[in-house]
Amino acid sequence: MAGPLAGLRVVELAHIMAGPVAGLMLADMGADVVKVEKLPGGDDTRRMVPPRVGGESAAFLMMNRNKRGVALDLKSEGGKAALRRLLEGADVLIENYRLGTLDRLGFGWEAVHMMNPRLVYCSLSGFGRTGPYAARGGFDLVAQGMSGLMSITGEGPGRAPVKVGAPVSDITAGILAAMGILAALQARVTTGCGQLVDTSLFEAGIVHTFWQSAIALATGVSPGPLGSAHPLNAPYQAFATADGWINVGAANQAAWLKLVAALEAPDLAADARFETNAVRMENLPALVAALEPHFRRRTTAEWLTVFEKAGMPAGPVLGINEMLADPQTRARDMVVETDHPLLGRVATLGSPVKFSQTPAGVARAAPMLGQHTREVLGEIGFAMAEIDALIASGAAAGI
Distance between CA 149 and CA 163 in Å, rounded? Predict the structure, then answer.
């Protein structure tokens, strides 16, 4: 691949999701991401089953495509020596170990910065490296609860708290980490020096509350869940049709007038309760009740045709399989196939960022445990006999 990050060496000392998302984003853009898995067992995602694809964890295959895999026992001197040499020539280290773990192994920020001053060291954790919760472990569910996300997700007040279906704090933390890494690499162009990049699942959850935090900071009132509705605009939510659901986004006055015209409901446009966005928000339950019967008159497909002609933003609520098969998904190369040494062709998600001159893409399947240990250690100066000795001692694993 000749993506925009071609020539960049990234060492991913990370597991499960947030750290691997960061590595995945950089790998898609052409970086050589070397995933260092622990021994014994490797990344815990390998055991997140079912489902499996030919005996391999589907979750691991998804999170680790486009990377090369090395397996090291970092409690052994041989494993530490191999990682040390790998980091000496690397541009970036991504890690999501619990605070203090890598310090005890000799690979904390200070030690690695002395070893390689140009290296960008990215640390992902549950709550960040500072503050009263720095030592706590972090999980997406916990972060969603503490960031306020679960208080604004769900059908309405008085119902049980609901998390966002996708692990958004894990995924967003990985994206924020990739953004921070790229910013630190840009700063290195000027300073010649790497730096510590620190982000967390907690902060990744918080950044999804921009609208709700704006309301709370302005009014002192914590917004609650609104189902699919918007806290600042109406109507902007899902409505049941004759055969399914449709999302409509009448996020401004012009769109509202297009909507009522398309619904053939001029009485709604003349209703004083719905005249402006402010009063529509004040009367949201009445607005929804007035709109629902109109939407039930036609199927989702019929409404989509009507709204497209009217220039009204709308879209169906798709299941995951429907999304994966959607022509727009396919046109944007968001489902691609990779060649796995055991499984053959394996489908995975594509890169979400496109470049006109230095295309991103997915070129590798997720590695088998230790698949590239011999290849990578050979590149950084280990003789074949040394590699054989490391594998024989259990300090490394290779195929």
Answer: 7
Determine the distance from the C-alpha atom of residue 376 to the mean position of all C-alpha atoms in its chain, rounded to a whole number: 27
Report how far residue 130's alpha carbon sits from residue 79's, in angstroms, rounded to the nearest whole number. 29
The Cα–Cα gap between 91 and 120 comes to 6
Q: Are 47 and 22 in contact (CB under 8 A)?
A: no
For residue 157, what pLDDT is reported?
A: 84
Cβ neighbors of 260 (< 8 A, separation 6 or more) are 266, 268, 269
Structure tokens at 32: 């050589």
CA distances from 243 to 316, 325, 326 (A): 11, 20, 19
Taking a C-beta distance cutoff of 8 angstroms, is the pair 360, 29 a contact? Answer: yes
The strand pair at 396-397 and 68-72 is best described as antiparallel
Split at pLDDT 50, 70, 90, the class of 183 is: very high
Running DSSP on this structure, what letter comes out for residue 266?
Answer: H
Largest Cα–Cα separation, the chain: 84
Cα distance between residue 143 and residue 172, in whole Å = 11
What are the catalytic residues? 170
Q: Are 7 and 89 in contact (CB under 8 A)?
A: no
pTM: 0.94
pLDDT of residue 273: 97
Residue ranges of the domains in the chain?
9-207+326-397, 245-316
Say yes or no: do domains 9-207+326-397 and 245-316 share a fold. no
Alpha-carbon Rg of the chain, whole angstroms?
25
**CATH number of the structural domain 245-316:** 3.30.1540.10
CATH 3.40.640.10 holds for 9-207+326-397: no
The type of residue at 231 is P
